[in-house]
Amino acid sequence: MGWSERRATRDAHKLPADWEAQCNKAFLRLVHDIKEYDIPAELYVNTDQTNMVYAQGTKLTWAPMGSKQVGVIGTEDKRAVTLCVSVANSGVLLPFQAVYVGETYRSTPARTAPNYQATVNAGMTYEYGTRTSYWSNQRTMQRLVTDIIAPYFDAQKAKLGLPPDQKSIWQIDVWSVHRSAEFRSWMKKTYENILLHFVPGGCTGVFQACDVGIQRPLKHSLRRSYHRDVVDEVLEQLDAGKDVITVAKNVATLRDRTVTWIWEAYQKLNRPDLVKSVRTFHLRPGYCR
What we know:
Shape: globular
Number of helices: 9
Strand order of the largest sheet: 6-5-4-2-7-8
Largest sheet: 6 strands, mixed
CATH class: Alpha Beta
Low-confidence stretches: 72-77, 280-289
């Protein structure tokens, strides 16, 4: 038939024309603060946000050989969760924050969901966004700092025998919520010892550790967990002798399943050697202890 297995197509990400200059400037700002405030690797954290879609389907299909544009059924399903993933330059994977669509905590996974308590014990948090969005906002970002980022920095200072006013660096991207006057003012007033650094716009693929090295194995783990749930669900129905096989698509069921997906991904990524192998902070050994 002249068909071959093809991957869904999309426009390639393009770096800014002056991306090297922007990254060099960001690098020099990092070097200045690390040297000026004597910041150890443990107190340098990078956070990135990524989508965790409910339908972790494949992006492969069959299409005529030579096709330039390939569409895949199911890829239009935009139901998702925002995962805020953070790593320290010392190789530590911080707990995740997950943000779900909704206006109350009833929109987050049930406490009875499998592995819920394990994730909470590990320091992970579940937040609601808005009625129409799962993207991080002012409230969820402030909760991220209060519940995860700041406690991590405080614990590391105590472990290293450093004073409470020791400076630390938190590197995030230049998303509108992050760079807003409201968020920056709140950070300066509430956590004056946490220095904000921004990844240059359009340069996350070359200057952000989480984007470059963590998100790929994270999403691979999420897909594997989702596919396992689907296989188990189908096999259970086949074993029961059902003639019509269905796969759960309702949000309530999938939302609770995300807890296990998150927990399994965290366990697979929580390895200092893995985190250190993907850091892209561009700092020579002399700059970070």
